[in-house]
Amino acid sequence: MAGACARLACGVVLMHTRGRPGEWKYLPDLPRDAVVQLVLQELAERLEQAGDAGVVRSRILLDPGVGFGKAFEAHYPLLSG
Description:
Elements: H1 2-8, E1 12-15, H2 35-52, E2 60-63, H3 75-80
Parallel strand pairs: 1-2
């Protein structure tokens, strides 16, 4: 997908998520003190992959994926961090 976006010079939203929707209720909770670092690390990896595929950085939006595979309690440190 990243290669197609690079060729078409379109905008891209890279969102953090854990697993697939059917798996979310079975995922272990993330430690409150680790959620921000985990999301930053995984988004950085996706950002690098998109850049390696040729997607221009100014066309990329990063989304922390509030609610996507994260427990409700993880939202507070994620939003504040």
